Amino acid sequence: MILAQRVARVLLPPAALLGLALVCWLGGLVWFAQTIPREDGWADRATDAIVVLTGGSERISTGVQLLSRGLGRTLFVSGVHQGVDLRDMLRAARLEPSTLECCIVLGYEAGDTVGNAAETAAWMRSRSYESLRLVTSNYHMRRSLLEFGMAMPQVDVVPHPVAPDAVKLADWWRWPGTLALIVNEYNKYLFALARYTLSS
User: Fold this and answer.
1) What is the pTM of this model?
2) Which partner from 16, 106, 152, 179 sits 20 to 30 angstroms from 112, CA to CA?
3) Contact 102/19 with Cβ under 8 angstroms?
């Protein structure tokens, strides 16, 4: 790898190297955007836990629906703001309090996706759980799976992507808001991938 980089520096001028890097980045961006899951949810098999990452009301409501269908024993919501209790969270997601409240646990420690993975890993160990269904937005799923895999490689993770209405994946490059969101998430994914590669 180092030899190849040295050869490339000798054979290609800096402008060409920059252009090549840009082409690779753009190709990766297109791959990333085109492979974002377009549908809500995947396999219906039950897991020990359902884990929801905060960041959208659709995620919370999806998690509660999955819990009501018996697809997990406990619903763990990671990344809840300090001071928000369960009833506040359910109201914000336009959900009525229900008998399921006894099976919902809130986590307040995480501030980002890395924190979500660490917080969830600690909670999973405390329950001796071995499998989870991960609920987050579809554009966020690939990076979340990478972080969760690093934090708890022994846990079986079933992805359950949620498709927010505001994210327009059809002709995504034509929608400035969606384009900015995907570019930002793609760059974060690349940094997470680099960290994973170095740690391996």
Assistant:
1) 0.86
2) 179
3) no
